[in-house]
From TrEMBL:
GO terms for molecular function: structural molecule activity. InterPro entries: Claudin, Claudin6, Claudin_CS, PMP22/EMP/MP20/Claudin. This is Claudin. Belongs to the claudin family. The keyword DNA damage does not apply. It is a multi-pass membrane protein. GO terms for cellular component: bicellular tight junction; plasma membrane. It is found in: Cell junction, Tight junction; Cell membrane. Its main location: other. The lineage of its organism: Eukaryota, Metazoa, Chordata, Craniata, Vertebrata. It comes from the Eukaryota. The chain crosses the membrane at residues 29-53, 109-131, 147-174, 194-220. Keywords: Cell junction, Cell membrane, Membrane, Tight junction, Transmembrane, Transmembrane helix.
Amino acid sequence: MKNLIDNQPAPEPYRRPRTKLREYSPLNLIMASAGLQILGIVLTLLGWVNALVSCALPMWKVTAFIGNSIVVAQMVWEGLWMSCVVQSTGQMQCKVYDSLLALPQDLQAARALCVITLLVVLLGLLVYLAGAKCTTCVEDKNSKSRLVLISGITFVISGVLTLIPVSWTAHSIIQDFYNPLVADAQKRELGASLYLGWAASGLLLLGGGLLCCACSSGGAQGPGHYMARYSTSAPHSAIRGPSEYPTKNYV
């Protein structure tokens, strides 16, 4: 019996498998951050152009075609700065508003907010150029990241400022359209400028959000930063090594 026990091979102790580290080069993080910045600033520029066109075009409110007759002699366009009358022959006559106080409240607020939005976007672009990776206005990398973050927040604020007047004007148009006390000749529909304003707001919000994400992904990772990925280790085995068995003398 003693010989059989001595000849039995002892079980090997459990060895934890080695894990391989997956390294992410800082160059890849920098390139990803630069790509997000480029995409964000392109979307922001497109949003600024849409906001400018929406502010300039006199197509915030257009004539509503109500009734059985689809043949009309003229169409009326109302914008922030002027109103236009388009004849059926193709001729168009525009007139700048004589008095600011004569405008509805939604158009008065839209005037101010649109101008503020355009100026805020320009300010955000200047801040971004100071902190962009392709410029040398600021040498410190942390300061560059903060400037990019500030510009992204500025673009998000400008997107909200663009959304407010557009949605307010659309709400006023829809409310008057379904109001039975308003004459059919005074009812208006949503113009093309409102859709451009909504598109501008979405582009500014998306571009500003991408710049904020680029700042967090590129600025938080310092040089030589690596991320390790560990494999799930197997549960500890209950098998004990030969040194863990209690020794007992057999006679």
